[in-house]
Amino acid sequence: xxxxxxxxxxxxxxxxxxxxxxxxxxxxxxxxxxxxxxxxxxxxxxxxxxxxxxxxxxxxxxxxxxxxxxxxxxxxxxxxxxxxxxxxxxxxxxxxxxxxxxxxxxxxxxxxxxxxxxxxxxxxxxxxxxxxxxxxxxxxxxxxxxxxxxxxxxxxxxxxxxxxxxxxxxxxxxxxxxxxxxxxxxxxxxxxxxxxxxxxxxxxxxxxxxxxxxxxxxxxxxxxxxxxxxxxxxxxxxxxxxxxxxxxxxxxxxxxxxxxx
Amino acid sequence: xxxxxxxxxxxxxxxxxxxxxxxxxxxxxxxxxxxxxxxxxxxxxxxxxxxxxxxxxxxxxxxxxxxxxxxxxxxxxxxxxxxxxxxxxxxxxxxxxxxxxxxxxxxxxxxxxxxxxxxxxxxxxxxxxxxxxxxxxxxxxxxxxxxxxxxxxxxxxxxxxxxxxxxxxxxxxxxxxxxxxxxxxxxxxxxxxxxxxxxxxxxxxxxxxxxxxxxxxxxxxxxxxxxxxxxxxxxxxxxxxxxxxxxxxxxxxxxxxxxxxxxxxxxxxxxxxxxxxxxxxxxxxxxxxxxxxxxxxxxxxxxxxxxxx
Amino acid sequence: xxxxxxxxxxxxxxxxxxxxxxxxxxxxxxxxxxxxxxxxxxxxxxxxxxxxxxxxxxxxxxxxxxxxxxxxxxxxxxxxxxxxxxxxxxxxxxxxxxxxxxxxxxxxxxxxxxxxxxxxxxxxxxxxxxxxxxxxxxxxxxxxxxxxxxxxxxxxxxxxxxxxxxxxxxxxxxxxxxxxxxxxxxxxxxxxxxxxxxxxxxxxxxxxxxxxxxxxxxxxxxxxxxxxxxxxxxxxxxxxxxxxxxxxxxxxxxxxxxxxxxxxxxxxxxxxxxxxxxxxxxxxxxxxxxxxxxxxxxxxxxxxxxxxxxxxxxxxxxxxxxxxxxxxxxxxxxxxxxxxxxxxxxxxxxxxxxxxxxxxxxxxxxxxxxxxxxx
Lengths: 261, 309, 375
What we know:
By secondary structure, chain A is α/β, with parallel strands linked by helices.
């Protein structure tokens, strides 16, 4: 199943620069994501990794550069456009809807697939009910997949952090995305939780064939999971390649360990 | 010349009453800056301060004290009441609600408004109480230039003077005193302030106290103009659009916003009112604020907010 | 012991998604509806206690039903979508005056175009529903700022609606058909030939409206649109990134909320008041509705009903209980006490239980399910 097609490029980011006032978060960064692969972006704190994801799904608008997604090139993405195009996302600090249950949170991920409008939903009868049940069935599949059956009706605010991360992944999966952006999916987790999450990421990639781009600090995890790794430092891409290539790169070693001047 | 004279008179009258809005708006800005609370209760605090002041004053004068002694004592009494109110609010409402979102805090201040209004009227009575601290007659300026001169209320001038002194005083308090610096630190980031040892609940008490004293000052002017009565709380509601126009975090904004609203609504009333049925003053400020919100959401002097995830 | 769900298994998602998945709740609801639709009208028709006089119907049940409906509308906007509104009273007024104009015939002279728009008087039912629709349009209009501004700023935008419409209905004589006193009278309540006159008929009419609209509202909030609203409320940025359009979610919340409030306003004017002045829909009404929602429970349809009941019954209790105890309070004291109690209750609930009485009830039910064991 897992056979990245080297010829088919899903996302191409070309010469992106982003500045906040005087702070240059990204400088002329280019990289691509191939269909079906797991792509990692790593780098020290403040390297611009999260900014990069924000540019990809349209939350930040770059000052320069172009983003080509599914063959369409734009100077910037819009959040809604990105979502409709099939880009889903999880966040560094879990961004769930605190007042809703785990089930409802994941159900929100189905929004773009809902066809019946306001009046039908108000009646909730016949085709509208059938549609709602169909979405529920899809969501229950995801709940099974992520092994969170027992907490489906618990308000997410009451869940422990690890489970919240899982629900957030579920919400992103409910969108049936083509490209899944994961911002530090394992931050703050213990070893077992990290193992679980790694398994889910690999399974999502295998089972649904979803292309994944992730940011992660745990090098062991990154090197194990990903097909290719891009390294950012101070908003500049300093290395890009397979995990082995990146490991050997002098620039990367310098960025992480510091270099004698 | 008559037209110009009338225009100037309306403009000056509007600017002066705008100063009164600014007085109330100042209290809002103080609290919003320091604790992020959008304090709906500021108007109720003006009512409470006014009632405490006027009732104490009447009682003291009736007992034969000389006027100036009575005034000093009554102002002291009202200040104590405002301090007690500030303490109660901090202790029982704002303290427990720390870290809640702005909407919850806002709704809680609506609750506070009702408690203050109910309690104030229950304790001090619910009639209209005239207050005479400032002269209420008028000057007529430039009588040689315009027929009949331009009417300027002395009270309005007093109000403007007081507002000026108040702003200067607050500026000194914020910039020069230790408490003022702590206040600004809390306003920036209350957790960080807490971690360097600034006592937050004390600071918030001070903020509410200062806002209460600003309310007291506003009450002296408003009370002299209209008598101390319940409808003061409605006039104080106009401080909300003033804030939106000026920017929620800016003290100069509160002043300029007040002037714009005051002058704007008077001019609109006089020049547009007759053609559409009059009473424009009732909504002008709000609709103006709405327009400002659409064009410049952070207000004229506010800071732009950058969102992150 | 009665409240057990053991043995009630759900075999389909449809069953699991029912409004009341637990059998005991369904029975309780059926009983309640039975009392409301059959019991009350029967007792009232034969003037049996507590319906010896019309007091209970007129002064409590009728306003309760209509205000509960308005509270449901307010709750959709404030509780579900998280957009604060201090202008609910204005939207009630828009519903009421639009319905009035439509029921008495609309005539808009367009002198400069040389003709006039004239709509003949419409039937009462159509007027009420179209009144709601007008309120929905106004809601969308005043909801547009919510796309650029958030939270507190929006409160001022809704205040603008409140004060502007207060003024418009008071000062623009067109709305009141040039009535010299500014007060207007509702048309005869003719529903397909049935004339609604007596308190019992009025009660049944409102009950029907409220039941139907509450069910539709409940369906919306538990469907996809409701989830979109709550997503916007809880974290609007994340909502946008998973494909929820803030424009659509917020404006539908404004529209649905204002529609319900507008219909409630039309009912309030036509069925309850009969003749009214703009004062009936002032900012006090807006705050009252907001209080109902906070006290009853933000984000709960049932909570809106509980909140409305509480706000209506509280002043009556303050009047009755001290009198029974031999310490009658003056009207003024009651008003002040009411202010203090509502205010402190709001603060208390926001601190301790932001989901209001509705949450307290569901906690109670949780406990009841486990009773006599604590866990």
